[in-house]
UniProtKB/TrEMBL annotation:
<dbReference type="GO" id="GO:0008270">
    <property type="term" value="F:zinc ion binding"/>
</dbReference>
<dbReference type="Pfam" id="PF00107">
    <property type="entry name" value="ADH_zinc_N"/>
</dbReference>
<feature type="domain" description="Alcohol dehydrogenase-like N-terminal">
    <location>
        <begin position="24"/>
        <end position="135"/>
    </location>
</feature>
<keyword id="KW-0614">Plasmid</keyword>
<keyword id="KW-0479">Metal-binding</keyword>
<dbReference type="InterPro" id="IPR002328">
    <property type="entry name" value="ADH_Zn_CS"/>
</dbReference>
<dbReference type="InterPro" id="IPR036291">
    <property type="entry name" value="NAD(P)-bd_dom_sf"/>
</dbReference>
<keyword id="KW-0560">Oxidoreductase</keyword>
<keyword id="KW-0862">Zinc</keyword>
<dbReference type="InterPro" id="IPR013149">
    <property type="entry name" value="ADH-like_C"/>
</dbReference>
<protein>
    <submittedName>
        <fullName>Uncharacterized protein</fullName>
    </submittedName>
</protein>
<dbReference type="GO" id="GO:0016491">
    <property type="term" value="F:oxidoreductase activity"/>
</dbReference>
<dbReference type="InterPro" id="IPR011032">
    <property type="entry name" value="GroES-like_sf"/>
</dbReference>
<dbReference type="Pfam" id="PF08240">
    <property type="entry name" value="ADH_N"/>
</dbReference>
<comment type="similarity">
    <text>Belongs to the zinc-containing alcohol dehydrogenase family.</text>
</comment>
<dbReference type="InterPro" id="IPR013154">
    <property type="entry name" value="ADH-like_N"/>
</dbReference>
<feature type="domain" description="Alcohol dehydrogenase-like C-terminal">
    <location>
        <begin position="185"/>
        <end position="316"/>
    </location>
</feature>
Length: 356
């Protein structure tokens, strides 16, 4: 089959690899119908986490709509022909972590993530024609007929992650809120946040196109680029009696974005982090956080499985249409060029849907 194989920083190639096969009785083989690129894929694509990956071996991708084409002998819930999706991480539902909702920390799967390298289970990714899904009965989900193929990959990662971060922020109807990072997931979160508060929502991002999208969703766009961010912070402080916002929902996943979140939160405020933080050495001011009595809730290593049903219902009930953040449609062979557009934050690029 064809798959996106990591060879080095910014060097992902579509090439022939061995078809995945049933290795355990609980495995299912899924044929990819649609998949998509996630912001977290860029950490791998750019070579920022080379210790996690095996060049020439690791395949990428963890968001999917697929069709079951083969089932292991112990699989009960799925049959050939079923349309399915998975949360980006594999979970058993029975271990001590899964039982308290920490499905991303599943002890049985060893925190396995589709297409995220050797350190996370060495599983094949969804940027391929086929993918093997272990522990299928325990974490794979049927897709309702009402959901078209295009929206289903959002159920693997972005929409559950957005819903979890917004829920964790505990936004009240009169809370002022700042969304930091207006990529696809940040914009989905913003769309949900607008339904949780009637007060002002500020949308911080360095990219003008993304700020425009946030403005369309009813937010006040704020420039987060390096030479403008201090002015933007001051504008929020001026508008909030010098206090800052009640809640910050952070989706950029970078140290500077976290610092921005601390600067924006008012005393007693909450920072709900949904971003993926992979910087080990970024200094954080405990002083600043302490003297604001901040509440910090991090869910970037999202327990996506726990919010997947909720995410389905958000779409089915027309609360949110994730395809609003879908800006590109490409075939698997076009993925490398789409990844480059994504990582350079090319004008007009938010998220790409990929078909075989
Ligand atoms: Zn993702
Ligand atoms: Zn488990």
């Amino acid at each position: 089959m064809r798959a996106a194989v990591y060879h080095g920083p910014k060097d992902v190639r579509i090439e022939e690899v061995a078809d995945p096969r049933i290795e355990q009785p609980g495995d299912v083989i899924i044929k990819m119908i649609t998949t998509s690129m996630c912001g977290s894929d860029l950490y791998l694509y750019n070579g920022e986490v080379e210790e996690l990956v095996a060049p020439g071996h690791t395949t990428l991708g963890h968001e999917i709509c697929g069709e079951v084409v083969e089932v292991g002998s112990a699989v009960n819930r799925f049959a050939v022909g079923d349309r399915v999706t998975f949360p980006y991480s594999v979970s058993c539902g029975r271990c001590q972590s899964c039982r308290v909702g920490q499905t991303a920390h599943c002890l049985t799967s060893g925190k396995a993530i589709y297409g995220f390298g050797t350190a996370f289970g060495d599983l094949g990714g969804s940027h391929a024609e086929y993918v093997r899904s272990p522990l299928a009965d325990d974490h794979l989900e049927h897709v309702p007929d009402s959901l078209p193929d295009d929206v289903v990959p959002f159920l693997s990662c972005n929409l559950p992650a957005a819903a979890i971060a917004v829920h964790a922020a505990e936004i009240e109807l009169t809370d002022t809120v700042a969304v930091v990072g207006c990529g696809a997931t940040g914009l989905l979160a913003l769309d949900l946040i607008r339904r949780h508060t009637n007060a002002t929502v500020y949308a911080f991002d360095p990219v003008p196109f993304r700020r425009k999208r946030a403005e369309v969703l009813g937010a006040v766009p704020m420039d987060a680029s390096a030479d403008a961010v201090d002015t933007s912070i001051q504008a929020v402080l001026d508008a909030t009696h010098g206090l800052g916002v009640h809640k910050v929902v952070e989706f950029a996943g970078r140290g500077d974005a976290f610092d921005l979140s601390v600067a924006l939160a008012r005393p007693g405020g909450t920072i709900s982090g949904g971003g993926v933080y992979l910087e080990r050495d970024h200094p954080v001011s405990l002083f600043d956080m302490h003297f604001k009595n901040l509440r910090l809730v991090l869910n970037g290593f999202a327990n996506a499985h726990t919010a997947q049903r909720h995410a389905m219902q958000l779409i089915e009930n027309n609360v949110i249409d994730p395809t609003a953040v879908l800006t590109h449609r490409v075939s698997l062979s076009e993925l490398p060029s789409a990844a480059e557009q994504f990582t350079t934050r090319e004008e007009g690029f938010l998220k790409a849907l990929i078909t075989p």
